[in-house]
Design brief:
Strands 1-2 form a two-stranded antiparallel sheet. The chain contains 8 helices and 2 strands, in the order H-H-E-E-H-H-H-H-H-H. It is mainly alpha-helical and 143 residues long.
Protein backbone atom coordinates (compact mmCIF):
# COMPACT_ATOMS: atom_id res chain seq x y z
CA UNK A 1 0.00 0.00 0.00
CA UNK A 2 1.39 3.41 -0.78
CA UNK A 3 2.35 5.44 2.27
CA UNK A 4 -0.29 8.05 1.40
CA UNK A 5 -3.15 5.49 1.31
CA UNK A 6 -5.72 6.54 3.89
CA UNK A 7 -6.65 4.23 6.73
CA UNK A 8 -10.23 3.07 6.54
CA UNK A 9 -12.78 3.53 9.28
CA UNK A 10 -15.30 0.95 10.41
CA UNK A 11 -17.96 3.14 8.80
CA UNK A 12 -16.20 2.91 5.44
CA UNK A 13 -15.81 -0.85 5.77
CA UNK A 14 -19.47 -1.19 6.77
CA UNK A 15 -20.55 0.72 3.64
CA UNK A 16 -18.67 -1.82 1.53
CA UNK A 17 -19.82 -4.81 3.56
CA UNK A 18 -23.46 -3.79 3.13
CA UNK A 19 -23.25 -5.59 -0.22
CA UNK A 20 -22.22 -8.95 1.25
CA UNK A 21 -25.75 -10.17 2.15
CA UNK A 22 -26.96 -9.13 -1.31
CA UNK A 23 -24.16 -10.97 -3.08
CA UNK A 24 -24.67 -14.07 -0.89
CA UNK A 25 -28.34 -14.44 -1.81
CA UNK A 26 -29.09 -17.74 -3.51
CA UNK A 27 -29.35 -17.20 -7.25
CA UNK A 28 -28.24 -13.58 -7.16
CA UNK A 29 -27.16 -12.33 -10.59
CA UNK A 30 -24.30 -9.84 -10.72
CA UNK A 31 -25.17 -8.89 -14.27
CA UNK A 32 -25.51 -10.32 -17.72
CA UNK A 33 -23.63 -10.46 -20.97
CA UNK A 34 -25.11 -8.92 -24.10
CA UNK A 35 -23.95 -9.70 -27.62
CA UNK A 36 -26.03 -7.67 -30.06
CA UNK A 37 -25.29 -8.29 -33.70
CA UNK A 38 -22.58 -6.00 -35.04
CA UNK A 39 -21.47 -4.88 -31.58
CA UNK A 40 -18.75 -6.23 -29.31
CA UNK A 41 -20.20 -8.26 -26.45
CA UNK A 42 -20.46 -6.34 -23.20
CA UNK A 43 -21.32 -7.06 -19.61
CA UNK A 44 -24.15 -5.12 -18.00
CA UNK A 45 -23.64 -5.13 -14.24
CA UNK A 46 -26.64 -5.38 -11.94
CA UNK A 47 -27.58 -2.16 -10.14
CA UNK A 48 -26.10 -3.55 -6.91
CA UNK A 49 -22.83 -4.61 -8.55
CA UNK A 50 -22.52 -1.14 -10.09
CA UNK A 51 -23.28 0.47 -6.73
CA UNK A 52 -20.67 -1.78 -5.09
CA UNK A 53 -17.97 -0.59 -7.49
CA UNK A 54 -18.97 3.04 -6.90
CA UNK A 55 -18.85 2.43 -3.13
CA UNK A 56 -15.32 0.99 -3.35
CA UNK A 57 -14.18 4.25 -4.94
CA UNK A 58 -16.26 6.54 -2.71
CA UNK A 59 -15.00 4.88 0.46
CA UNK A 60 -11.39 5.05 -0.80
CA UNK A 61 -10.97 1.27 -0.79
CA UNK A 62 -9.48 1.52 -4.28
CA UNK A 63 -6.05 3.07 -4.01
CA UNK A 64 -3.35 3.97 -6.49
CA UNK A 65 -0.35 1.64 -6.63
CA UNK A 66 1.62 -0.26 -9.26
CA UNK A 67 -1.01 -2.93 -9.77
CA UNK A 68 0.60 -4.34 -12.92
CA UNK A 69 3.71 -5.42 -11.04
CA UNK A 70 1.44 -6.99 -8.40
CA UNK A 71 -0.30 -9.28 -10.91
CA UNK A 72 1.53 -12.43 -9.70
CA UNK A 73 -0.05 -11.84 -6.29
CA UNK A 74 -3.43 -11.28 -7.92
CA UNK A 75 -3.07 -14.64 -9.67
CA UNK A 76 -2.19 -16.29 -6.37
CA UNK A 77 -5.31 -14.88 -4.75
CA UNK A 78 -7.53 -15.74 -7.71
CA UNK A 79 -6.25 -19.27 -8.35
CA UNK A 80 -6.09 -20.36 -4.72
CA UNK A 81 -8.56 -18.04 -3.13
CA UNK A 82 -9.94 -20.64 -0.76
CA UNK A 83 -6.70 -20.65 1.21
CA UNK A 84 -4.95 -17.48 0.02
CA UNK A 85 -7.72 -15.15 1.19
CA UNK A 86 -7.81 -16.76 4.64
CA UNK A 87 -4.65 -14.90 5.64
CA UNK A 88 -5.01 -11.78 3.47
CA UNK A 89 -4.71 -8.51 5.34
CA UNK A 90 -6.62 -5.30 4.60
CA UNK A 91 -3.82 -3.85 2.47
CA UNK A 92 -3.77 -6.98 0.31
CA UNK A 93 -7.55 -6.92 -0.13
CA UNK A 94 -7.38 -3.29 -1.21
CA UNK A 95 -4.62 -4.05 -3.70
CA UNK A 96 -6.53 -7.05 -5.00
CA UNK A 97 -9.74 -5.12 -5.59
CA UNK A 98 -7.81 -2.23 -7.12
CA UNK A 99 -6.10 -4.62 -9.53
CA UNK A 100 -9.46 -6.15 -10.50
CA UNK A 101 -10.93 -2.70 -11.19
CA UNK A 102 -7.95 -1.55 -13.21
CA UNK A 103 -7.63 -4.81 -15.17
CA UNK A 104 -11.29 -4.59 -16.17
CA UNK A 105 -10.57 -1.28 -17.90
CA UNK A 106 -8.11 -3.06 -20.18
CA UNK A 107 -10.00 -6.32 -20.56
CA UNK A 108 -13.75 -6.02 -20.20
CA UNK A 109 -15.12 -9.03 -18.45
CA UNK A 110 -12.35 -9.35 -15.89
CA UNK A 111 -14.54 -7.98 -13.13
CA UNK A 112 -17.58 -9.94 -14.35
CA UNK A 113 -15.56 -13.16 -14.08
CA UNK A 114 -14.50 -12.28 -10.52
CA UNK A 115 -18.10 -11.60 -9.52
CA UNK A 116 -19.47 -14.73 -11.20
CA UNK A 117 -16.78 -17.05 -9.81
CA UNK A 118 -17.60 -16.02 -6.23
CA UNK A 119 -14.20 -14.41 -5.75
CA UNK A 120 -15.55 -10.93 -4.94
CA UNK A 121 -17.96 -12.42 -2.40
CA UNK A 122 -15.07 -14.35 -0.83
CA UNK A 123 -13.05 -11.12 -0.61
CA UNK A 124 -15.98 -9.49 1.19
CA UNK A 125 -16.22 -12.40 3.62
CA UNK A 126 -12.54 -11.96 4.48
CA UNK A 127 -13.05 -8.20 4.79
CA UNK A 128 -15.85 -8.86 7.29
CA UNK A 129 -13.52 -11.02 9.39
CA UNK A 130 -10.95 -8.22 9.40
CA UNK A 131 -13.59 -5.59 10.21
CA UNK A 132 -14.95 -7.66 13.09
CA UNK A 133 -11.44 -8.17 14.52
CA UNK A 134 -10.73 -4.43 14.33
CA UNK A 135 -14.06 -3.63 16.02
CA UNK A 136 -13.34 -6.15 18.79
CA UNK A 137 -9.89 -4.63 19.38
CA UNK A 138 -11.31 -1.12 19.48
CA UNK A 139 -14.09 -2.05 21.91
CA UNK A 140 -11.64 -3.79 24.25
CA UNK A 141 -9.55 -0.60 24.39
CA UNK A 142 -12.44 1.65 25.35
CA UNK A 143 -12.40 2.88 28.94
Amino acid sequence: MPPDAPDLSLTQLDAILAFLPIFERQGYSFGEWHAPEGVFPYWDASPEASAFVATLYREQFITPFDWVSWMPEVQRYVEGWDTALATADLASLRKLMTAHMRADRFSEGTLAAQFESGHITAVLRRLKQIRDAVAARESSQEP
